Structures are given as structure tokens and as C-alpha cells.
Amino acid sequence: MILELDCGNSFIKWRVLESDSARIFAEGVVGSDASLIDSLFALTGLALRDCRLVSVRASDETNQLVTTLVEAFGVKVLCAASARQMGGVRNGYEDFERLGLDRWLAMLGGFQLARGACLVLDFGTAATADFIAADGEHLGGFICPGMPLMRNQLRTHTRKIRYDDIAAERALEALSPGRTTVEAVERGCTLMLRGFVLTQLELARSYWGGDFTVFLTGGDADLVADSVPHGRLVPDLVFVGLAMACPLS
Ligand SMILES: Nc1ncnc2c1ncn2[C@@H]1O[C@H](COP(=O)(O)OP(=O)(O)O)[C@@H](O)[C@H]1O
Ligand SMILES: CC(C)(COP(=O)(O)O)[C@@H](O)C(=O)NCCC(=O)O
Ligand SMILES: [K+]
């Protein structure tokens, strides 16, 4: 079996594939290395042979996780690395190694699925947009605070914005103007994300008319999915790119 990991700034997304790669044996989202190991130990019938991972964390943290995985499961671990070019996509950054690896893999996955121009939108700790032209040229992208950062800035830099996660979830059942603090903040931040999306769509239209595919991914993608009627919600887009960047022989 193959363990796949996407280590973002807030959460580790994991899944275990059967060795023929065709079927998902198990998957989940965890907040720490320790809970990843716990979740994996809790699986009956787990037989890991390989692991591939992408991380946007500091190399110390990533190396620590790799060591833990090797010790716990005796797996071989492949880590995705930056590239100037791969899968027909050309990294558009001045310094290609500076482009976030999760963005790069989502772009590889998107370009492979679209086989044409695409706009890749990822809603995690940060919200990111990347533009890939039909010939595979990465035109660049945008980074702004995602939902967790926006709400936490308000919570920590004001005196009177305090609420719990359950209230936050309930507040997003509608997007009408809020009548409580939690509604006002949660809906306000959601509309910020939607505004970001609409601006990216306008830019993509100015480049490519109507001839492009929009991909939505990341833990908060469903908050904006309504704003992109023809968008493709692909929660595992980073994993699609990860398999391309780390093929197993
Ligand atoms: N099952 C889940 N577990 C954790 N967070 C989730 C889940 N589903 C949606 N989310 C939301 O996803 C966001 C984090 O997205 P994610 O793509 O995991 O971020 P990152 O890659 O930066 O760690 C959080 O705002 C969180 O509320
Ligand atoms: C932009 C990001 C912070 C997004 O991280 P995430 O929200 O997925 O945790 C990450 O891709 C990153 O650290 N990038 C390096 C900077 C760059 O892409 O220019
Ligand atoms: K991510």
C-alpha cells in the first residue's frame, strides 16, 4: 500500500492507496504528526510499502515526520521537490524553488485534467490562485489570507469578537447580513473569499475568453463553490500532482 501525505500549514491530509493505486483504502485529515501516526496504527489490514509526501512546512518539521514514518512503518519515503518544468507545465516564478510545492502540484494535477488553460484556486490556511496557459506556461498567481487566517486575525486583534466553532459552522447556513457577531464575521470573511474568486475569474476571462477550466481545492473550497458555476471541485488535486511528481517504480 502507498501512504500519501499533503502537509499544509494547518492540517495533514492523508490517504492510503492499494498498491495498484486504483482504490483508496483509508483517508483522513489530522492536526499533528502524532495524530497521523495514531490514525494509521488504528487501521486494520494496513500494509504500507511506500510513502510520498508534499510539505509546505519547514524542512526540520518535514524531516522529523519522515523519520517518524520510517521508524513506525519501515516505509520508503519520497518527498516532492520543486522543478522548473514537469508534466507539460513550466514554473513561472523568477526563482522556481520559491513557489509553494502544494501550489505546484495542484497546477500539475489541474493541467493534466484540463488539457488546456486553467485557473487553480486553493483555499487552505492561505487562499491561492494560479494561472496556467494552454501551452503549459505558468503565468504566476496570487496569495492572500484564507478563512482560518482572516477569522483568527479578527479574533486576536479585537476585544469583542469571540465565538466557538459550532457557532461558526451554524453562521454559514446563510450569507445574508449578520445579526450576531459570529454571523457578521463568518459571512464577511466568506464574502471576502468569494470576492477574491470573482476577481480571478475576470482575469482568466481577460486572458482566455471562455476557454479555460477552473479548479477548486483545499479544505474551504466548498465555501466558494457556488461562485463558480462551472468550476471543478477536486479535493484531491494536490494528490493528483503528487503522483506525477513522485512516481513509484
Ligand atoms: N475534515 C476537515 N478537517 C479539518 N479542516 C477542514 C476539514 N474540512 C474542511 N476544513 C477546513 O479547511 C481549512 C484548512 O484547509 P487545508 O486545505 O487543510 O489547509 P492547509 O493546507 O493550509 O493546512 C480550515 O479552515 C478548516 O476549517
Ligand atoms: C502559499 C502557501 C502559504 C499556501 O499554503 P497552505 O495554505 O496550503 O498551507 C504555500 O504554498 C507556501 O508557503 N508557498 C511559498 C510561497 C509562494 O508560493 O510564493
Ligand atoms: K494546502
Can you give a write-up of this model?
The protein has 249 residues and is of the alpha/beta class. The chain contains 7 helices and 12 strands. The protein has a 5-stranded mixed sheet, with helices on both faces. A 5-stranded mixed sheet has the order 10-9-8-11-12, sandwiched between helices. A hairpin with a 2-residue loop joins strand 6 and strand 7. The longest helix has 28 residues, at 181-208. The radius of gyration is 19 Å and the shape is globular. The model has no long low-confidence stretch (mean pLDDT 97). Adenosine-5'-diphosphate binds at residues 8-11, 29, 124-125, 147-148, 218-220. Homodimer. ATP binds at residues 6-13, 125. GO terms for molecular function: pantothenate kinase activity.
Task: State the order of secondary-structure elements, H for helix, E for strand.
Answer: EEEHEHEEEHEEEHHHEEH
Task: From the alpha carbons, calculate the radius of gyration and give it in angstroms.
Answer: 19 Å
Q: How many angstroms separate the termini?
A: 13 Å
**Hetero ligands:** adenosine-5'-diphosphate, the ligand CC(C)(COP(=O)(O)O)[C@@H](O)C(=O)NCCC(=O)O, potassium ion
Q: What is the number of helices? A: 7
Percent range of helical residues? 25-40%
Mean pLDDT: 97
Class computed from helices, strands and strand pairing: alpha/beta
Write down how many β-strands occur, each being a DSSP E stretch of 2 or more residues: 12
Largest sheet: 5 strands, mixed
Q: Give the strand order of the largest sheet, numbering strands 1, 2, ... along the chain.
A: 3-2-1-4-5
Sequence stretches where pLDDT stays below 50 over 5 or more residues: none
Which oligomeric form is depicted? single chain
Which percent band covers the strand fraction? 15-25%
Shape: globular
Binding site for K(+): 122
Subcellular location: Cytoplasm
Subunit structure: Homodimer.
Active site: 102
